Amino acid sequence: MSEPGAGTSRPAPAGEAGTAPEDQAAAAAGDDLRAQLAEAQDQRLRALAEADNVRKRCAARVSQAEAEATARVAARWLPVLDDLERALEHSDAEPEAIIDGIQAVRDEAMGILAALGFPRRDDNGAPFDPARHDAVAARADPAAPAGTVIDVIRPAYGEGDHQLRPAQVVVARAD
């Protein structure tokens, strides 16, 4: 016969036998994945912070470059302002001398614009081009072909995509 209690040991429920090492491996793998996730999140936050810092540095450099460019342009205009002030000091001079002085200041201003890449354009007689001209009027002119600029109300400065402003013009129309 059998001994009491012998062979009465309960079998381990399914899934419990030898699970301790498997549980430890799964827990270790889970811990490893959590650590990797935390590291990836940390790297993401660092990358976002670095991108924000780069954006701020670039914005500061752009702002500084704009300020420097503005100062350079303003410095080029100072002689024009000085000449205008001298002209005002001599407002009681001969009218012809005043006119000569104003023309010299205008020439100086046009030279500055040309040096900045915006030369004055002569559009008289040119074919009307809506990219280069603003038509403010049209009138019959038997001496000019239709669609031709016959009068410039306000001159243009610059060329092509580098245009400071288009010319305001009167265009010949066919009658």
What does this structure look like?
The chain is of the alpha+beta class and about 180 residues long. The protein has 2 domains: about 30-115, Hemagglutinin Ectodomain, Chain B (Alpha-Beta Complex), CATH 3.90.20; about 120-175, Head domain of nucleotide exchange factor GrpE (Nucleotide Exchange Factor Grpe, Chain A, domain 2). It is about 55% helix and about 20% strand. The chain is built from 2 helices and 6 strands. The strands form 2 sheets. The chain has a 3-stranded antiparallel beta sheet. It has a 3-stranded mixed beta sheet with strand order 2-6-3, with no helix packed on it.
- The end-to-end span amounts to 134 Å
Name the quaternary structure: single chain
Instruction: Name the structural class.
Output: alpha+beta
The second-level CATH architecture of the largest domain is: Alpha-Beta Complex
Q: What share of the residues does DSSP label as strand, in percent?
A: 15-25%
Name the CATH class of the largest domain.
Alpha Beta
Strand order within the widest sheet?
Answer: 1-4-5
Instruction: Please tally the β strands and state the result.
Output: 6
Q: Major β-sheet, in short?
A: 3 strands, antiparallel
Count of separate DSSP helical elements: 2
Q: Tell me the overall shape.
A: elongated
Domain count, please report it.
2
**Can you say what the CATH homologous superfamily of the largest domain is?**
GrpE nucleotide exchange factor, coiled-coil domain
Estimated helix fraction: 40-55%
What would you report as the Rg, rounded to the nearest angstrom? 41 Å
Instruction: Give me the CATH fold name of the largest domain.
Output: Hemagglutinin Ectodomain, Chain B
The chain-level mean pLDDT equals 88
Low-confidence runs of at least 5 consecutive residues: none
